[in-house]
Amino acid sequence: MISFRREAHVPRGGPDGGDGGHGGDVVFYVDSNVSSLVKFHRNVHFRAENGRHGGKSRKTGASGDTLRLPVPPGTLIRSADSGDLLADLTEPEQEVVILAGGRGGRGNIHFANSVQQAPLLAERGEPGEEAWLLLELKLIADVGIVGVPNAGKSTLLTAVSAARPKVANYPFTTLQPNLGVVTIDDYQTMVLADIPGLIEGAAEGVGLGHEFLRHIERTRMLIHLLDGAAKEPLTDWAMINQELALYDTSLGLRLDERPQLVVLNKMDLPDAQAWEPIIEEEVRKAGYPFCSISAVTGQGVQAMLYKTKQMLDEAPEVAPAASEEVVIRAAEDENVFTIEREDGGWRVHGRKIERIAAMTYFEFEATLLRFQQILESMGISEALEEAGVEVGDTVYIGDDTLEWAE
Ligand SMILES: Nc1nc2c(ncn2[C@@H]2O[C@H](COP(=O)(O)OP(=O)(O)OP(=O)(O)O)[C@@H](O)[C@H]2O)c(=O)[nH]1
Ligand SMILES: [Mg+2]
Question: How far is the CA of 289 from the centre of ligand 2 (A)?
Fold first, then answer.
């Protein structure tokens, strides 16, 4: 604000225009009650509040409210331009400032000095930051349940937890991963993730599988569920193990190297009962622990959970985003600028000068003068003259168009 004290007994009141408030930040934080990024499908534009204007009598404007966006645990935030990882939000309550609000412009109280006692001079607020971001969810669970479509993965999750995923007798019933909390012995818990069924070629992105393998990247072990009613459960097992081996994980051990409990399901059916001795022998021969269950009748399920818990206690931790570093934005040299020709005129590029231009009220003589002094002190005027700028030429800086004069 540009303003001056006006009081009857103070003949020449000094400047008293206050500063503008700072703009709000854009913050992402982990909310354990949020389970998907669907909010960001419906709406892609989010904006924190502007700061309020400064006032007379040195009043500083209120700061704009921070925009706080809740995301589920396991959300990775990347810059859409560079692909750089900006944040890996895994812990409850964890938060990160992704975009900082602009600084409020200074009021004319700041521009008085011995020469200039009645400054008709103030700044605009600093423009806020903006960016396109990519959000990616990699669920956080202790155990991932993998298997071909229709193996009974969702039925198993329903049998052992309060989760209620859709169950049906056709492949690809599950399209979104589901999490269930399993309680053992009344106090110990573990989180199981049920993902959509995997089919051959999943790791190459054929079919639906690939999309979903990332959801088990943060799990410490796998339950590999075999469909006892399938034609060739052992072939299915080998096929999915191959998909796990082909998947390129950026977090922790390769998927096929994680501890894996092989579980034959549908033991209430004669087919599964006939398969059991053959499968058990093959699986154990290959060095994997084995259980058989019926997710429908509950047979063998409790024993399977104990085995799972025991393996989990011995399984290595998955370090969050272990092999990829979070990039802190590189601090550019603020003073660097470039000059190039544009539309018969000249364009000046540079972080600092563009910001200052955006903060300048060009309609005031005093602010214009100050801007010219900055162009001088940063060496921009000289550089423009060297480049051949002439009186009357157009100079572009950020969104502003200026005319070059003596
Ligand atoms: N008889 C019998 N049927 C089962 C058992 N477990 C699951 N089913 C049936 O198998 C079918 C598929 O079960 P789901 O739990 O939907 O299978 P899924 O592995 O989640 O399948 P997708 O989500 O498509 O990958 C359903 O009709 C279930 O009722 C079991 O132990 N015994
Ligand atoms: Mg399912």
Answer: 23
Helices 365-377 and 351-358: crossing angle in degrees, nearest 10, is 170
pLDDT(375) > 80: yes
- Mean residue pLDDT of the chain comes to 87
Task: Give yes or no: residues 262 and 345 share one domain.
Answer: no
Question: Could you give the CA distance from residue 236 to residue 81 in angstroms, rounded to a whole number?
Answer: 40
Distance separating alpha carbons of residues 161 and 193, to the nearest angstrom: 11
Which of 145, 148, 150 has most ligand 1 atoms within 8 Å of CB, for mutation? Answer: 150
User: What is the total count of domains within the chain?
Assistant: 3
Residue 194 and residue 87 in one domain: no
Q: Taking 70 as the threshold, does the pLDDT of residue 275 lie above it? A: yes
Mean pLDDT of 287-291: 97
What range defines the domain where residue 51 resides? 1-137
332-340, long-range: CB within 8 Å, 24+ apart, which pairs?
335/378, 337/378, 337/380, 337/383, 339/380, 339/383, 339/384, 339/387
Helix, strand and coil percent figures for the chain, each rounded to 5 = 25, 20, 55
